[in-house]
């Protein structure tokens, strides 16, 4: 049995298809489906969202020019520092897991953008004088050890 295929208007075959074209271009050919960024920065930005029924810790992987690649969120009681630390770690982990390929290794910083972020650092085992991703966090988050952690709230 000899099967021949033609894609996207490639050279026509020499068989009769009852008048049907030998190749039909796909409707999505050439369209970009993934976000595109020109920035060299790729940060994980963590914030608390109080707009839902229950507060959420939201972690988003965002480029320097505002393109969002992935997001993770976890409900939390923001008044409980231990629960907030656990939800922060979980939300970051979910966002990083949503990245494709080696993008997790390209993360340039983690930004904690909520009022009580300084209370969360020691619970996560992060040095408050020089906050960076530790080996223990790297194993849980997938972000390179030594990646800076900034407090911006």
How would you portray this structure in words?
Residues 1-25 are annotated as: Disordered. With 153 residues, the protein is an alpha/beta fold. The chain has one domain (42-151): Nucleotidyltransferase, domain 5, CATH 3.30.420. Helix content is 20%, strand content 20%. The chain is built from three helices and five strands. It has helices at 81-97, 117-123, 135-141; strands spanning 42-49, 56-63, 68-75, 109-112, 149-151. The chain has a five-stranded mixed sheet. Strand 1 and strand 2 form a beta hairpin. It is globular, with a radius of gyration of 23 Å. The N and C termini lie far apart (68 Å). Mean pLDDT is 82; it is low at 24-34.
Helix count equals 3
Give the N-to-C terminal Cα separation: 68 Å
The residue-averaged pLDDT reads: 82
SS class:
alpha/beta
In N-to-C order, the SSE pattern is EEEHEHHE
CATH topology: Nucleotidyltransferase, domain 5
Region (Disordered): 1-25
């Amino acid at each position: 049995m000899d099967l021949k295929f033609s894609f996207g208007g490639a050279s026509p075959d020499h068989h009769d298809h009852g008048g049907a074209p030998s190749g039909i271009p796909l409707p999505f050919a050439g369209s970009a489906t993934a976000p595109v960024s020109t920035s060299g920065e790729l940060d994980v930005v963590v914030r608390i969202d109080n707009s839902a029924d229950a507060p959420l810790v939201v972690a988003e992987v965002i480029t320097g020019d505002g393109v969002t690649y992935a997001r993770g969120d976890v409900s939390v009681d923001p008044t409980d520092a231990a629960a907030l630390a656990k939800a922060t770690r979980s939300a970051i982990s979910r966002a990083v897991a949503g990245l494709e390929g080696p993008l997790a290794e390209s993360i340039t910083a983690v930004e904690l953008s909520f009022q009580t972020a300084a209370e969360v650092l020691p619970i996560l085992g992060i040095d408050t004088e020089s906050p960076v991703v530790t080996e223990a966090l790297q194993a849980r988050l997938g972000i390179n050890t030594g990646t800076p952690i900034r407090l911006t709230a």
